[in-house]
TrEMBL record:
<dbReference type="Pfam" id="PF13638">
    <property type="entry name" value="PIN_4"/>
</dbReference>
<comment type="similarity">
    <text>Belongs to the PhoH family.</text>
</comment>
<dbReference type="InterPro" id="IPR003714">
    <property type="entry name" value="PhoH"/>
</dbReference>
<keyword id="KW-0547">Nucleotide-binding</keyword>
<dbReference type="GO" id="GO:0005524">
    <property type="term" value="F:ATP binding"/>
</dbReference>
<dbReference type="InterPro" id="IPR029060">
    <property type="entry name" value="PIN-like_dom_sf"/>
</dbReference>
<comment type="similarity">
    <text>In the N-terminal section; belongs to the PINc/VapC protein family.</text>
</comment>
<dbReference type="InterPro" id="IPR027417">
    <property type="entry name" value="P-loop_NTPase"/>
</dbReference>
<protein>
    <submittedName>
        <fullName>PhoH family protein</fullName>
    </submittedName>
</protein>
<dbReference type="GO" id="GO:0005829">
    <property type="term" value="C:cytosol"/>
</dbReference>
<feature type="domain" description="PIN">
    <location>
        <begin position="12"/>
        <end position="137"/>
    </location>
</feature>
<dbReference type="InterPro" id="IPR051451">
    <property type="entry name" value="PhoH2-like"/>
</dbReference>
<keyword id="KW-0067">ATP-binding</keyword>
<dbReference type="Pfam" id="PF02562">
    <property type="entry name" value="PhoH"/>
</dbReference>
<dbReference type="InterPro" id="IPR002716">
    <property type="entry name" value="PIN_dom"/>
</dbReference>
Length: 441
């Protein structure tokens, strides 16, 4: 978004849709040395959203305060106020261009598009910026140049995987097997895994790169279980390696349905909280992104409402405890919740909290924006481990996709940091049917 001026020096007019502010309240700072247009209908929508207590409401209030800070500097938003990034900020009303009869004028989205059409009719070079795919399609159909807000987008096809295969010479391979470590100077990220193999053999050694020492360390090829859960493939083994390492406070696990990302995160959390007492509590949450988008539409108190959205978590916990039932038949999920060892919470209630000594798992994190991800990770107090799991291809939020969601953004932003580890899991282990469905559907 920084390169916004044509070679001939023509100023561009960026018309900003409401959802861009909801995605990132200070998004207009990304458009430099040009003209940033806020349709009056956008202010109306932000005003309607500001009363809500959810993330949309908070971002709407933040955006309004951000705009007010420029308005209070003097000058007129109608004529234009100079921004710190060199752009001219204006608020413009729609009116001079007639919309097609198919588009209702009383709909805010259409009035926002009409504002962009007015500017284009006046000879401006206009770009309509929106996170709403359908709004962009309508704008394009009406002859506008429509673009997504890409400041926080990544390329999902080339995203960091957390591991790679590396072919080495036979003597290097044997040395690694004996010494259990190698001096490694090639370009690897901190805590990245490597599958080392030779050209003439099928044997594979699993190593993990430690950036602080510049070493590749061998991961022992041994059978083990965590809360009764055994890794069923080498990717799950990598994930357990990170989950059980107390020196890594932030972990992301990406994978399609059935790869086991949530189950193994919960299994590791149970061990760390109940067996090792490394953390005081296992706190599990997930975004509430249903058709109604609010747990208030369900009957009952907060716990009864949450039970519907958190049922996949309860299913996994029941499975883990069922494996260990012979060990202690008295301790079900309710026992751990009553004794404050496990807490199931909606993300709505995590904001504003400080979370020390917690093993925090956020499931379905692909439905969060980069701003929401930042809010959650910044809640981590001392001795808290944060695990974010999700499938970037299974997005339920209307303004996010596999490239712009907060989980994908975090992976690319944090890769290489010594305090961070990541694994992309590709093998479905839920069942043969689940794997076939993932491949064919």
């Amino acid at each position: 978004m920084s390169k916004t001026v044509n070679q001939n020096g023509t100023v561009k007019s960026f018309v900003i849709d409401t959802n861009v502010f909801i995605h990132k309240p200070d998004a207009i700072s990304s458009f430099r040395d040009n003209e940033v247009i806020i349709p009056l209908a956008v202010l109306e929508e932000l005003d309607n959203l500001k009363r809500f207590s959810d993330e949309k409401g908070r971002n709407a209030r933040h955006a309004i305060r951000f705009l007010d800070a420029y308005a209070s500097r003097g000058g007129s938003l109608h004529q234009g106020v100079k921004m710190d990034n060199g752009s001219l900020l204006k608020v413009v009303r729609a009116g001079s261009t007639d919309l097609p009869v198919d588009l209702k004028h009383d709909k805010a989205d259409n009035r926002i598009i009409q504002t962009a059409l007015d500017l284009q009719a006046a000879g401006r070079q206009v770009f309509f910026v929106s996170k709403d795919i359908n709004a962009r399609v309508k704008a394009e159909a009406l002859g506008l140049q429509a673009v997504d807000y890409e400041k926080q987008k990544v390329d999902i096809n080339s995203m960091y995987q957390g591991w790679r295969e590396i072919q080495v010479k036979r003597d290097t391979f044997e040395k690694f097997k004996i010494d259990k470590k190698l001096d490694w100077r090639d370009a690897l990220k901190s805590n990245e895994f490597a599958l080392l193999k030779t050209a003439d053999e099928n044997e594979v050694l699993l190593g993990r790169y430690m950036s602080q020492s510049g070493e590749m360390r061998l991961i022992p090829n041994r059978r083990f279980s965590v809360s009764g859960i055994k890794p069923l493939n080498i990717e799950q083994k990598m994930a357990f390696e990170l989950l059980l390492d107390d020196s890594i406070p932030l972990i992301t696990l990406l994978g399609q349905a059935g790869t086991g990302k949530t189950l193994i995160a919960l299994a590791a959390g149970m061990v760390k909280v109940t067996d090792e007492a490394k953390y005081n509590r296992l706190l599990v949450s997930r975004p509430v992104i249903p058709m109604g988008k609010d747990i208030g539409y369900l009957p009952g108190d907060k716990d009864e409402k949450l039970s519907h959205w958190m049922q996949p978590i309860f299913d996994n916990l029941d499975y883990i405890l069922g494996i260990n039932k012979k060990k202690d038949e008295e301790k079900g999920v309710d026992w751990f919740i009553k004794n404050n060892l496990i807490e199931i919470e909606a993300l709505t209630y995590i904001r504003g909290r400080s979370l020390p000594d917690q093993f925090l798992i956020v499931d379905e994190a692909q439905n969060l924006s980069p701003h929401e991800i930042k809010t959650i990770v910044s809640r981590a107090g001392r001795n808290t481990k944060v695990i974010l799991t999700g499938d970037p291809y299974q997005i339920d939020s209307p303004y996010l996709d596999s490239n712009s969601n907060g989980l994908s953004y975090l992976v690319e932003a944090f890769k290489g940091q010594p305090l961070y580890g990541h694994v992309t899991l590709s093998h479905t282990e839920r069942s043969d049917l689940a794997e076939l469905a993932a491949q064919l559907l």
